[in-house]
Amino acid sequence: MAKVNDIRRFVEFGKKIVACGRNYQAHAKEFNQDVLPEPLLFLKPTTSYLREGGSIIYPPKCTELHYEVELAVVINKGGSKIAEPSAMDHVGGYALALDMTSRNQQLDAKKNGWPWSVCKGYDTFLPISDFIAKEKIDPFNTNLWLKVDGETRQNGNTKDMVFNVPFLVSYISNIFTLEEGDIILTGTPSGVGPVNRGQTITAGIEGVLEMKFPVA
Ligand code: MG
């Protein structure tokens, strides 16, 4: 059966955004937390997508808005209970994403045992690049960086992931059926921090692309 959707336009038809928290040891340490024996997963709504040209909106109940630069994996072949050795066959490509977080609301949620839907799910909380062809990225060795107003804040490499891309695809597909257009956010390296209204975030994948989002 011919595919109806063009995977390069995954933002328009994808149904799920599955995010992995605490997937780089150095980032876990920033919050005095240990990495976990299994991936820590949460969902973001597709309404949080923001394309270049738009602005990140600082929500009224947020007093500390944090950036987290992450490699996004784009699924182009659905499946459930995908075995790790064939997991990469389900990956159609990649994108660069910012997992924006209302950190004060997340700390409240952690303290109270509440879900992360609010602190991770506001509109514009997932700025995302254009689709990147699969062959342009080595998921085991790719440099990600992020700057605020031109000053470097994050600089990491996907080789430092606790759970790598094929493991995540397989693990997640044992919980949620993965569908064409869904994405997986693979966690952020260290260096997360606050960004203020009026500042501009630039982020990139070394040698592949760069993107820019102002905070309004
Ligand atoms: Mg994150």
- Residue windows where pLDDT falls under 50 for at least 5 positions: none
Lateral strand order in the biggest sheet: 2-1-12-5-6-9
Main sheet characteristics: 6 strands, mixed
- List ligands, each type once: magnesium ion
Number of domains: 1
CATH architecture: Alpha-Beta Complex
Fold-level CATH name: Fumarylacetoacetate hydrolase, domain 2
- Structural category: alpha+beta
Give me the strand/helix succession.
Answer: HEHEEEEEEHHEEEEHEEEE
Number of helices: 5
The portion of residues forming beta strands comes to 25-35%
Explain what you see:
There is one protein chain. By secondary structure, the protein is of the alpha+beta class. It has one domain (7-214): Fumarylacetoacetase-like, C-terminal domain (Fumarylacetoacetate hydrolase, domain 2, Alpha-Beta Complex), CATH 3.90.850. It has 5 helices and 15 strands. It has a 6-stranded mixed beta sheet. It has a 4-stranded antiparallel beta sheet with strand order 11-10-14-15, with no helix packed on it. The chain is globular, with a radius of gyration of 16 Å. The model has no long low-confidence stretch (mean pLDDT 96). The site of magnesium ion has 8 residues, from β1.
